[in-house]
Specification:
The protein is α+β, with helices and mostly antiparallel strands and 277 residues long. It has eleven helices and five strands. Strands 1, 2, 3, 4 and 5 form a five-stranded mixed sheet that branches.
Length: 277
C-alpha cells in the first residue's frame, strides 16, 4: 500500500472512531488544501467534507457557507482548543481547530446536534431537526481531551505522508508554499528560507520538485482552487482572492490550462457526479 492510500485510510479510521465514540456526525473542512497529496487529491473521504444530513440539505446553502465556512474558520484561526459553534439555524456544533506550526490548517466539525438539556418539546423549525443526535454538554470538557488527541493524530499522519522521505530542504520549501501561497512570493523568498543564493535555490527547487518555484506555487494554488470548487459555494472571485490569483480571469485561464475545463464547469461536473452517489 502506498503512503497516500495509507494516509487516507488512517485519517478515515480516526474520524470514524471519533464519530462512533461521540455519536455525532464528523466532518473536516480543509480551507487551505493542507490535507491533499502532491497531485492535489484529498486525503479525506468525500463524505467527510459535507454534513450530508437531511437537516443540512434543507438549509440555505449560501447562509451555511458564510456561517460554517467563512466565519467558522476565521474564528477557529484564533483558537487552540475545541469550542462551541452554534449552527445559524439553532442546533449546536463543536469545532476542533487543526493547527500546524502555530497556524490554522483546518477544522473538524462535530454536529449539528441538539443539547440533551434542550426541551424535548422544542418545535422543529427545519426539516430533519427532530432526527439530529443529542449530546450531553456536561461531557464537553472531559471529551475535549479526546478531541485534541484526535486532532494531533490527524495532523501527524498528514505531515508524515506529505513529507515522507523528502528531506529537510524539500520540507522547508513545502512549508513556505502552503504558508504563503496566497501572497506574492518568488524564488528570493525560497532562497531566504533555504539560506542560499537565488541561483542555487532555483536549481535546488527544480531538482526536488521537477519544476521552477513559481510553478510549484501555481500548482498549489490550482489544487487549492479545485478543492474549494468541490467543497464550497464560494464564488470564482472569492476563490481567486483566497488562493493568490490576481483576478478571476487569471484563475480561469490557468485552471483551464491545467484541468482542460473551465472552473464553473468543473464544479458543475463534480456536483452532478456527487448527486448520483
Amino acid at each position: 500500500m502506498d503512503k497516500d492510500t495509507n494516509c487516507r485510510q488512517e485519517l478515515e479510521s480516526l474520524l470514524e472512531s471519533l464519530e462512533r465514540i461521540i455519536g455525532i456526525r464528523v466532518t473536516l473542512q480543509d480551507p487551505y488544501g493542507f490535507f491533499c497529496d502532491e497531485k492535489g487529491n484529498s486525503y479525506l473521504h468525500p463524505d467527510r467534507v459535507y454534513h450530508r444530513l437531511v437537516f443540512c440539505q434543507n438549509a440555505d446553502r449560501q447562509r451555511c457557507m458564510v456561517h460554517e465556512w467563512k466565519k467558522a474558520n476565521e474564528t477557529a484561526g484564533g483558537k487552540t482548543r475545541p469550542f462551541l459553534w452554534p449552527c445559524w439555524l439553532g442546533p449546536q456544533q463543536i469545532l476542533i481547530p487543526l493547527r500546524w506550526q502555530d497556524r490554522h490548517v483546518g477544522s473538524i466539525f462535530l454536529g449539528p446536534f441538539v443539547s440533551s438539556s434542550s426541551s424535548p418539546a422544542r418545535q422543529e423549525t427545519v426539516k430533519g431537526e427532530k432526527d439530529l443526535p443529542r449530546y450531553d454538554m456536561a461531557n464537553f470538557e472531559k471529551d475535549s481531551a479526546l478531541f485534541e488527541a484526535i486532532a494531533i493524530g490527524i495532523i501527524e499522519k498528514t505531515i508524515s505522508a506529505s513529507m515522507h522521505g523528502k528531506g529537510e530542504r524539500w520540507e522547508k520549501i513545502f512549508r513556505l508554499v502552503i504558508n504563503r501561497y496566497t501572497e506574492k512570493i518568488g524564488i528570493n523568498d525560497a532562497a531566504k528560507e533555504l539560506n542560499l543564493s537565488a541561483s542555487r535555490a532555483s536549481h535546488l527547487v527544480r531538482e526536488l520538485f521537477g519544476m521552477p518555484f513559481e510553478r510549484v506555487v501555481l500548482e498549489h494554488r490550482l489544487r487549492r482552487s479545485a478543492a474549494l470548487l468541490e467543497s464550497t459555494d464560494l464564488s470564482l472571485s472569492e476563490i481567486a482572492d483566497s488562493t493568490g490569483f490576481c483576478d478571476v480571469y487569471h484563475l480561469c485561464r490557468m485552471f483551464k490550462r491545467k484541468f482542460k475545463i473551465p472552473p464553473g464547469k468543473y464544479r458543475a461536473k463534480l456536483r452532478a457526479e456527487r448527486e448520483r452517489i
